[in-house]
Each structure stands twice: as structure tokens, then as C-alpha cells.
Amino acid sequence: MRQIQNFNYRWAFTKEAGEIPTEIPASWYWVNLPHSWNNIDGQDGGNDYYRGTCHYAKKFEKTDLPEAAQYYLELRGANASADVYLNGKKLASHDGGYSTWRVNITEALEDSNMLVVAVENGINDRVYPQMADFTFYGGLYRDVNIIAVPESHFDLDYYGGPGIKVTPEVKGSDADVEVEVYLTNVKDGQDLVFTVKDAEGNVVATAKQGADATIALFRLENVHLWNGKKDPYLYTAEVELVENDEVLDNISSRFGCRFFEIDPEKGFILNGESYPLRGVSRHQDRWGLGNALLPEHHIEDMDLICEMGANTIRLAHYQHDQFFYDLCDERGLVIWAEIPYISKHMPTGRENTISQMKELVVQNYNHPSIVVWGLSNEITMDGKSTDDLLENHRILNDMVHDMDKTRKTTIAVVSMCPMDDPYIQIPDVVSHNHYFGWYGGDTSMNGPWFDNFHAKYPNIPVGMSEYGCEALNWHTSNPKQGDYTEEYQAYYHEELIKQLFTRPYIWATHVWNMFDFGADARAEGGEDGQNHKGLVTFDRKYKKDSFYAYKAWLSDEPFVHICGKRYVDRVEDETKVTVYSNQPEVELFVNGKSLGKQESAEHFFYFMVPNAGESNLVAVAGDCKDESFIRKVDKFNEDYILREKGAVLNWFDITEVEGYYSLNDELQEIMKSPEGQATIMQMMTSIMSSGEQETMIKPENMGQMMGMMGSFTMVRLMKLMGAANVQVTKEQMLALNAALNKVKRV
After folding, report:
1. Which pLDDT score is estimated for 161?
2. Rounded CA gap, 481 and 468, in Å?
């Protein structure tokens, strides 16, 4: 029988090693897994987190392992590439930091053993991701195990897979279930015993056959469907490898029976019923931990997503922990799973896209929650598709369809990509990443854009794979695009909800992002090193008001929420107070006096509240109640104004000349002047061409990006460009400001 021994405890770690040691040096320090060496420097800004090779070492005795014929080292996440050495001998290498992989260590085992894993997250041109708006945390950041098996066992070598593949096909009220297993060193006289159990543990089907017949077929009558959040029912398939009535090895996998379609007019349909997918994207990292999460962190994330009422998650931009996919199966969340083929197509990275996609599909095939495989994200960031990019996508698309005939393929398309780019025609369905109302344009543009796409391509199912805006603890009664206030983020999502959720042809919407996440290149919003588009803060301690806007539309749990709890001091004599609720009617009381009741089919309630002295606010909706507090002040509280810490340059440090432009002006205003436009394009192209590292955006595509981000001031835009790998110095910013000071305003 196979035995799995966790190997997380007590590893020696260093960033300094050169050669593979035979003994653990005294200078190395001890860590337990999961571990990341970028848990701090990958989140503090500056785009200077350590990217290189680090070594993990562990000594163990063979007698510490279970008795077995074969031993495999299983690594569930080593970012991004790793080499395994046992007793000085190199056994394996692996490229791809988000999947499970295994190494047969049997032949290299000695009585006393020194295991070293060299992990590196450095810059290269072959392993994805290399360029993206998130931190590539290095480390052994998921479990490491030893799997002990007999000579004949279920396969452990093929792309990190579980050795079992379960394919249900619903037929009327029944389901045909194909269970296929993969074996290593099978011998004559060995048998396979298949057992299918329902969620209660009752045996519903069995079969026994020779081990040379690796596929068993079952008919489940009156099948209990996996029906999303309504009823995420799971069966279990168990298989034993038997010889002379002795069980040599055993494996099992849960599975769900369901069917779906994605209709270009009606959207997502689950088990024959309309099931609009409305949810979020999730990055896996955490404040102070990086990617080195424990089960309780995954559970907390899932609890928050379910509290909000989401029924779908885009697990971006890479393979997530198996523990989280299991949670998705159990909770009934519909999942988009993808590989980190992102931002920049690398002609030398094709083999890595293929291997990462094979690992994703093989390892996750049995999860009923997954309905689409994502081929790439924003891969045309630097312009239109190329022939090599198109060929790469066609290879992936065909390969996935060969490996999995039950699911669809998709891509996440960046806004700047032309609607008629041929790569949009490759997958089964598409989704777009649009930030109208944050990076450019305004919120009203989102719905009409989809109407235009839908009219032009009525046979392509289309969704919204990313949309959002940043918010920190800044506040105002007059929210404006680009101000990073919680109030603007709430307004933005109110508008997007009304536009997206009322268009049934949009097959899925995924907010970017459920949680703030590490992006060490970012320097904006007053807290460097993070992307703050989350509906919940990086530490998961605070749910922003926009979280409750979605809860009002998506959750069945009765609630009421007063917005602006962190915005206490207000100068106006009458102030707007927004309330969210999924109840049909809300009444607001101020110091015990009712301001009346409101009804809203959109779940958003707006009250104009007299602001004098101190006011206790109480919102009542049915049996639900929420309280808040505001205070009248004579002067606006400066603590609510964004003053970025650690930034290269702040708006109040910039020289302004009356009648002329400066970096404090919005890009769209400067672009009204031909001279201003030429000045910006010349200076920005020079800045982008001067960097040592390749950027996401080519200089020749600068105009397109500028057109998209017109609502940002130049100083904020230049700081934001760190996310695209463009580092702008203080001297360069001041030089551009001096040039703009000579351009007359239009």
C-alpha cells in the first residue's frame, strides 16, 4: 500500500550557496515549508525583490521512510524552476512554478541522505511568467512529500497527475462514468478493483478486472448532479491494485456529474438551466506570507468569496493549490483554470506553455468545478498577435481539446487588442480585460463595448475576465476617477454591476480582484508594492464597501451595510450616505430620527443626511441592522487625502507655471495640445527605450496606451508604469515637467 509522508519540517535554507553541499553549512538557517524568500521584499515596492537561485537542504535516514520498493519525492510548488539533488547526484529539473511534479529517488537513496533542492525565480526567456503585474515569489511554497509505493503501482510520473481519470457523461436522468487508471510495472496476475461511492459513502457501483484492462465503465441511474452552489454533490471513485487478494496500491478521486454549455446569446447554462457566472478573480498570495499558504488561509479566502455570493472564480494567473480546487468542488464554485502564459509572448517559451498546460489539465481533470481552460492572459500587451503567437495558441487549443473533450478553452484579451485580431477566433469562448472608468474612458463605456462586440461576433460567447479599480483608506464626498478613494471604487462597481449583470449574453464576469495582492513594481495609491483593486485588503481584515455592493446582488443571506464607515469627518452641511442591501426596502435613522424608507431594484440606496455635530446612523432592512457614525468638521480632514509615501515624486513637489502644463495635469488635457502631445511622446519613448529590462509595452505602442489612460495625471501615470516594467527616475520626471512647463495650455 502506498504511504505518503509529509516532508515539510526542518529544511536548511540559504540565498548564498554556490555549489551543492554534502553537509549542511552552519551559516544556513532553518525553515519549515511552505516557505518563500520574497514574502517581505516582494510586497514592499521598488521592483527590487530577490530573483535568483536559493537552496533548500534536508538530511534524513532511509530508516525514517516507510518500507517500500519505490520512493518518489513530490513537490507541489517550487517557483519557478528547480533542480533536485540527492547525495550530490542531480536527479531532475523542472520548469514551472505552480504545479505538482515528482522525482523517483529510489536508486539514489543511501542509508544516510542529503537532499538539496535548488530553486530559482530569475529572469529568462523560456519559463512563464516573466512579465506580469504581480510578484513571482520564489520558494518551496507548497507541500513536499515522500510517496512510498510497491514495485507495481499507480502512475506517479506522468505530468504530476493523480493516476486516475474520471469522465462522467450525463444522459437523461442517468450518467455513464468512465474511470481510467495509469499503471507502472504492472504484472500478470494482478487485478484492478473499482468502487464508486456516493457522497454518503454508500457503494453504488463496483467492478473487478485484470490489470491489463485499465478502463472501467459504470452506469449511475438517477444520478445526483453536481449543481453549482445549489447542490455541489460529489461521488468518489476508488481503485485498488490487487495481487493474490493483497492490495498493493490504491488511489481515489472525487468527481461530479454535470453538464453545461456556453451559449453566445444566453450565456452559461448548467445542467440545462441558466446559471449566469458572476464572481471574482483570485491571486493566492498574502501579506507577510507571499504564496506560502496554509490550509486555513485557503479556507478563509473561500469563506469570504462565498459570503460575497460569488458563484465563479477565475484562478489567475497560474495553477492554484489542489486544496483550493477541492474547496471549489465542495462549495460549488464554477472555475476558470489557466496557465501563466501572460503579457509577453516568448518565441523560446513555447515548450513551457505546452508542459504547463499538460500539467494543469492532467492534474485537475477530475475537478467538476472547472469548466474552462485558460490558454493565455493579455498576451498581446505589446501589440497585435504575431504568426508565432497564433501558432502557439493553436497548438495549445488543439492539445487541450485532445486531452479533454468535455470542457471549453478560453483566453483573457487585453483592451488594446483589436476586436478582429485572429487570435480571438482560436478558443471556444473569450473574455476581455477592460478598465474603462479607471485606466481610461469612463464607466459608461463598458456595456456598450460588449454590445458592439456581440453585434459584430454574435456567435462568439463573450465575458468580462477583468475589471476593477484601486481603493485604499482615502475618502471624499466627491469621488473622481483615479483618486484611489473607497468611495470611487464603490461608485465604479455600482456602475459596472448594473451594466454587466443585466446583459444575459455575457457568459461570465470576474472582478479584478477579490483581494489586494503583491506587485512589487507598483508605486501608487500611497502604499507601494501592491495592487489595491481587491474588494478585500491584502491581510483579509477589511472588506471594502464594494464587497458589499456585490453581496447585495449575489448573496441570498439577508444583510444591510452602510458605506463610508472609515469616512467619519465631513465638511458639508448635507452629506450623501450610501446603503447596500439585498432586501427590498431600507430605512435610515439619524440620531434616532427616520429619514424615510427607500426601495431599490438595484440594491443601492442613497440618502441625503443632515450633517451637524455628531450623528449616529442606523440602517434597517427587514430584520437586519447596521450602524455607522459621522461628524461635522469645519475643515476637510487631510488624513483622507492621498499623499504617497516612498514615491519618487509627489504632486506637491512639482513646479507649476500659470498658463502652462505640468506633470500634475491629466494626460487627456495635455494631449489636446499638439505640442504637448509631441513632448510627451518624445520623452516617454526615450524613457522606455533607455531601460535595461524589456517592458510590457513597446515604444511604438505608447500612443495606444496613452489614449487608454487619459484620465490619469502624468505623475501618477509615470509611477504606474512600474507595473509594466518601466522604471522612471526622479530626474526623468523633472525633465519632462520642465518641458511641459514650456507648453501653453489649450
Report:
1. 98
2. 12
